Amino acid sequence: MSVIDILTRVDAICNKYDKYDVEKQKNLNVSGDDAFARGYAAIDAEIEAALEKAELASKEKSKASTVALNAELRRTKAKLLDEVPKLQRLAIKKIKGLSTEDLAARNDLVLALPDRIQAIPDGAAAAAKQPGGWGPSASHTEIKFDSDGRFDDEYFQESEQSNQFRQEYETRKRRQDQGLEMISEGLDTLKNMAHDMNEELDRQVPLADEIDSKVDKAASDLKNTNVRLKHTVTQLRSSRNFCIDIVLLIIILGIAAYLYNVLKK
Fold it and tell me: Region Disordered: what ranges (predicted)?
């Protein structure tokens, strides 16, 4: 076989399996509205970030930090697995500019995602695998149960890491319960204060009503007194004017009589 034949066969093989190139599919930009390309790129980036975080967790010396990182990794894996069905629906959607082989390649990439996601280390113990009843079903072939078949007492013993995590959880739970108890006591105190204030206001309502009645009565009496006083003053003023008029009339008559007598002499 000549060199030209070898190069030709290599090119043919590369072209045949080029559709399975992840980087090429991720960078494929057939349409600006290609939701699959964006979704797959986002999931692929999250998988890479999760792998880096898993490596960081494996090197972490603090067990509490390791537990927290592993818990976050499990949440990330669950979220990514929930995104796979949506991405699978987008993979079979026909888009202008995509060939049938490209659509098939997209479907193959989506089918490989669950294995890639499950392969992310998260510190969880592998599920037990029993013959006859625990194998993967036909409808969920992506679920795998890996175990060495050992179920002795050591298998179920608490590890130091899980024991420390449980103790930390119990401590935080006790602190939270204490805080909630203090808040409950404060709320009870405020409730009792509000109840006492309400009772005091209920007792003050009759007194306030009585004061309002007395004020209204005093205002009415004062108004009547002012009317009577005005009438009395008016009467006194009229009587005084009448007396003055009589006195002036007598004086005028006296002067007139005096002048008459003087002029008569």
Answer: 124-143
